Amino acid sequence: MDTLRLAAGGPETVRIASAILQNGGLVALPTETVYGLGGNGLDPAAVRKIFEAKGRPQDNPLILHVASASELDGLCHSISVAARELARRFWPGPLTMVLPCRESIPRETTAGLDTVAVRCPACDVTREIIRAAGVPVAAPSANRSGKPSTTTAAHVLHDMDGRINAVVDGGPCRVGVESTIVDLSGGVPRLLRPGGVTPEQLREVLGELEIDQAVTAQPAGDAVVRAPGMKYKHYAPQGQVLIVAGPAEKAAAYVRKRFQPGDAVLCFAEELSLYGGLAPTAYGSERDPESLAHGLFAALRALDRAEVKTIYARCPECGGVGYAVRNRLGKAAGFQIVTEDAL
Ligand code: AMP
Ligand code: MG
Q1: Which among 50, 187, 318, 339 has most CB atoms closer than 10 A?
Q2: Cα separation of 232 and 214, whole Å?
């Protein structure tokens, strides 16, 4: 199939994209987090096409994207006061809530769970398209399964050209990492994936927030996890990512001793000079975690080449969105970290 390129501001974009969604097709949509691979979330055939286009395991549920919080009641039940308050504060924005789902949601979308993940993205054209389509749009990140997420339309086409009906080009994504996911389906609220809305911000509303262990460590192969997506390899280029922690100079000395031709360095802008001669890639400034989130996936994609065997990566220690960056790099590395005492 030919993949249409639609400009976000184009006069026909909303009409064409929403018609494709209504007819069971797939459109990659810009959001403030990463590009989403959208299909009608109430149409099992459309949802199956999403899994096929991505090569995604079927037991990994999708996030439903809505145009406004008023759509929540049609998709979920037992919505707590706290969940409504989170929607009021953070939507449209990079927060996904997992809630008990209504029976009208196909099991293809929920991967058979009795919960559904819902979010309202902060991207005007995408909300207009969802509103015009008149259905919630199931949209995982628009990358081939296991690869770093896409943050530009060019990245989407690299992975999906010929596999989807259209991509809407809304420019580079502002946040750059996927949404925060919080499970509000019962018991103590639980963070399943960190993102642009930080644990600090969630605690302000929720008081208590548990952090799921999949956020900070690789689950064992046979572990039973709440969200099936957590058990798969994620965000990974072809080479092995190895996080090197500790002070800048010591880490650079460690890397310099081991660096082989074909290896790569992913570091902070302020550390570039420490890796002279090793052609380091900077993905942002250590002092500005937002810049690191914004640049991470583009940098991992640039290093996703067969000849790159080991990627030595520097990882921020800070909170805020730095916590989400640490989680994504940790997953890309299979949580392989050289700690300071090993330097
Ligand atoms: P992606 O589709 O790549 O943006 O990732 C979607 C994430 O949402 C995956 O990690 C899923 O496991 C998670 N997710 C979706 N629905 C649910 C749900 N009902 N419960 C828990 N996690 C979910
Ligand atoms: Mg993804």
Answers
A1: 50
A2: 11
Predicted TM-score (pTM) above 0.90 = yes
Residue 178 Cβ contacting ligand 1 at under 6 Å:
yes
Quick check: 189 and 335 in contact, CB under 8 A?
no
Residue 169 beta carbon below 6 angstroms from any ligand 1 atom: no
Whole-angstrom Cα distance, residue 259 to residue 262?
Answer: 9
Residue 211, beta-bridge partner list: 191
Q: Is 165 in the pocket of ligand 1 (CB under 6 A)?
A: no
**pLDDT tens digits for 158-204?**
999 999 999 999 999 999 999 999 999 999 999 999 999 999 999 99
How does pLDDT run across 200-237, given as a tens digit for each residue? 999 999 999 999 998 988 766 555 555 545 555 678 89
* Identity of residue 178: E
Ligand 1 atom nearest to CA at 226: 21
Using most ligand atoms within 8 A of CB, pick from 32, 50, 58, 98 the residue to mutate for ligand 1: 98
181 lines ligand 1 (CB under 6 A): yes
